Amino acid sequence: MRIAEDVYMVGSGQIGISNEGDCHVYLLDGGEELALIDAGVGHQPERIVANIRAEGFDERRVRWLLLTHCHADHAGGCRALKGLTGARIACTAIEGRLLAGGSDEELGLEVAKRSGMYPPDYVFEHVPPDLILAHGQELAVGRHTLRTIVVGGHSWECACFVVDRPMV
């Protein structure tokens, strides 16, 4: 679903285009390469790939999977989507440590499972990040440059990504 020029929503449990546990997952079209913002919960990642294809893109052009934070609904699908697309995972240092091997307690899963947000048998599929991003660091995605803004509060070291778009 195109939401802005070069930006598509390819996952969302809230609106039913992917697994019900998925956050909003975005695709950025940089021309010769693509980037995903977040990865969903990890159940039915093929639905996200199908949505990428439905928008006319080849999932093998996804070069980056940019992680905002390591809660399961945003990061649980990193391992699977990396395998399906070949994308490299980029995130902040603390979130990267959690992605690679954080405990259920550190990931917020222990409380989420007790509250019924996730089934007791949900397993977060760990995977090491390929690139650690610092505040202010830029990353090229084709014709776009994304600037990393590290923000606190929701998770240990959340990141926002500002797309510096060329003026037309």
Strand content: 25-35%
Q: What is the general shape?
A: globular
Total number of β-strand segments? 10
Helix proportion: 10-25%
- The assembly state of the depicted protein chains is single chain
Number of H- or I-type helical stretches: 5
pLDDT averaged residue by residue: 95
The low-confidence parts are: none
End-to-end distance = 23 Å
Order of helices and strands: EEEEHEHHEHHEEEE
Described by strand count, sense and barrel closure, the largest sheet is: 7 strands, mixed
Description of the molecule:
By secondary structure, the chain is of the alpha/beta class. It is 22% helix and 29% strand. It is built from five helices and ten strands, in the order ββββαβααβααββββ. The strands form two sheets. The chain has a seven-stranded mixed sheet with strand order 1-2-3-4-5-6-7. A three-stranded antiparallel sheet has the order 8-9-10, with no helix packed on it. A hairpin with a 2-residue loop joins strand 8 (138-141) and strand 9. The longest helix has 10 residues, at 45-54. The radius of gyration is 15 Å and the shape is globular. It starts with a strand and ends with a strand. The mean pLDDT is 95.
